[in-house]
User: Which sequence fits this backbone?
């Protein structure tokens, strides 16, 4: 079974447990913290995936890092993952959990990539566009990519609006490549 499917199943189990115990928001915040920590620290991901480091040592390291930052439910879940030999999937489980929580709450994820940081009025216009595309509440993530030169790319689910200058220049190149001009002979 693939790691993504396994991670999804663990995340679903954790989601059901959190809903049952009324701790969904608390564990969601914990999983976001774990996801950000894993994104920011490659060494942590490598250590968790390493078969050389024993599971109890991994649990000790995770306890040292996250002891005061994570809830009891989350720490118990991490310990369970380690005992089952699935600690290497912690990053995927955290990502899957966050996606499943958004689905449970009816929130769509939108990612806007712009050439420069967005000002508040631009952010609001893009958020309004994302809400129209999704047809539901939206959580907007912002990224900056100077290679776009100007404009933005908005992704909501499988839909995308690309109004970047790079895309417009690419379209112009295609248009000029298909030169419709036919000289008179």
Assistant:
């Amino acid at each position: 079974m693939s790691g993504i499917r396994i991670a999804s199943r663990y995340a679903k189990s954790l989601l059901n447990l959190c809903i049952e115990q009324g701790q969904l928001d608390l564990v969601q915040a914990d999983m976001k913290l774990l996801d950000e920590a894993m994104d920011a620290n490659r060494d942590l991901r490598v250590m968790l995936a390493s078969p050389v480091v024993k599971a109890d040592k991994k649990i000790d390291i995770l306890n040292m890092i996250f002891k005061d930052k994570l809830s009891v439910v989350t720490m118990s879940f991490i310990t369970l993952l380690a005992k089952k030999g699935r600690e290497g999937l912690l990053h995927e489980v955290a990502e899957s959990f966050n996606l499943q929580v958004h689905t449970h709450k009816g929130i769509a994820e939108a990612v806007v990539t712009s050439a420069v940081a967005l000002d508040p009025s631009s952010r609001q216009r893009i958020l309004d566009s994302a809400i129209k595309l999704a047809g539901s509440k939206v959580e907007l993530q912002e990224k900056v990519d100077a290679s776009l030169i100007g404009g933005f790319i908005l992704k909501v689910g499988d839909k995308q609006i690309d109004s970047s200058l790079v895309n417009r220049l690419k379209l112009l190149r295609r248009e000029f490549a298909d030169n419709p001009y036919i000289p008179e002979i």
Summary: The chain is about 60% helix and 15% strand. The two ends are 67 Å apart (CA to CA). The CA atoms of residues 35 and 95 lie 6 Å apart. The chain has two domains: 3-103, 107-177.
